[in-house]
Amino acid sequence: MVSRGSKLVKNSLIFAIGTFAPKVLSFLLVPLYTSTMSTADFGAADLLFSTAALVYPVCTLQINVATMRYSFNRDDKLPLAVGYRYTVSGCFGAGLLLLVISLAFPEVLSTRNAFYLFTLISVNAMYALAVSYLRGTEQVGLIASVGALSSVLTVSLSYLFLAVFNAGIDGYITAQILALGLAFAVAFFMGDMKCNVFCVFGGSAVAQLAKDMCSFAIPLIFSGVAWWFNSSSSRYILAIMCGTSVSGIFAVAYKIPNILGSLQSVFSQAWLLSALEEDGKEGSEEYFHRSYMMYLTALVATTGLIYIFNIPLASMLFANDFFDAWRYVPMLTCCALITALNSFLESIFNARRETGVIAKTAIVGAMITVLLSMPLIGMLGAYGCGLATLVGYGAVLEMRMAHYRTTSDISLGGARSTITVLILSSASLLLPFGGRPAYFAILLTFLSVFLLRKEVGSAGRAVCGIVRKKLFGRVLR
Is the pTM of this model over 0.90? Predict the structure, then answer.
């Protein structure tokens, strides 16, 4: 019998093989982006992707998450058929709306940008549905393979369009669209995702399933939109108040925190499966606590390394005017850490079908971000944009932690985890000033690691045990 921890580690390793190496390749493409695109072009492209991220959860009803949840431990493909129905019809409706807007208000939305938005929404929606179904049916190896393929295609096509064809912003966007579209095609055929989509129009059982899936997913629409406001609305305000060049520099600063995002992506995919399987079982809360603390330790260690090597990394990755982005990397890295912790809790709430909590907390966090963005950006520019985002993310985490404490006997992390996040947040605010504030920030970073010394020691002993076993095993053989 495979233990809980062993299964989580095994799934994490599988996802790591399919995710981490390609993410490293994508990370190394940052110099290509910053050397072949202007700050204004990169800012414009970032706003286009952000707009697609806003429209996507609304037009699809977030049905992909419901498809994942209702496909778990189920033999038929009815949840997938329902998912297809809402995803395709939603994308079609979004396309018609974008066409009407582009024809009626060309000065607001050009036909070119309307086409890009429709295509981005469609490929993201279909790819998300495919991956969600694979998660629900526990096709872990295929998820890793599809994720790897998507990343490799993004890297290859980006190099082709930007370095070879010198296609600029159009090449950058086209590379992302083709990569996701081709990855979806592979998932569709290899994941056995063909089904009778017309069955959703008949039968009381199917109608009830569709109703249940919509009831599960609709709160996630508000969550998706609110999370967009949490992460992207401040960038729109920044672009309006300071220009697309400044927003482009701020957008490229996200590339270094993507290191932490890769770790989060690897773990969260495996953790979602564990949360679905373990929730409600005896000892599950203690298991959740241990997993959370080990996860936090890995995130803190990675965040600390990014803080320390931020400027050397920026000098290698950010060309020309983009170098100023180093100032915003610490805050955005801390945002990525808090996002990872929010994702951990979100998986548990999804397993418990408490999607209302996800929506409510995300909405309040979005309101905080929006309300803080205008005054802070007006006073502090892009620094204020990062600060508003950090406060909004932190508020969401605290609210979700508070809810978890009211419904569980064992809290996640406790005071140590809260203090650790607060310390790293303070350090991220000091690092952009350099000099003595930066030195003090580094000391704070080491303090955060010291607070987790118990978990660091456990992780070290586990690694040493594995190495010793491997070495002695080879000698004995």
Answer: no
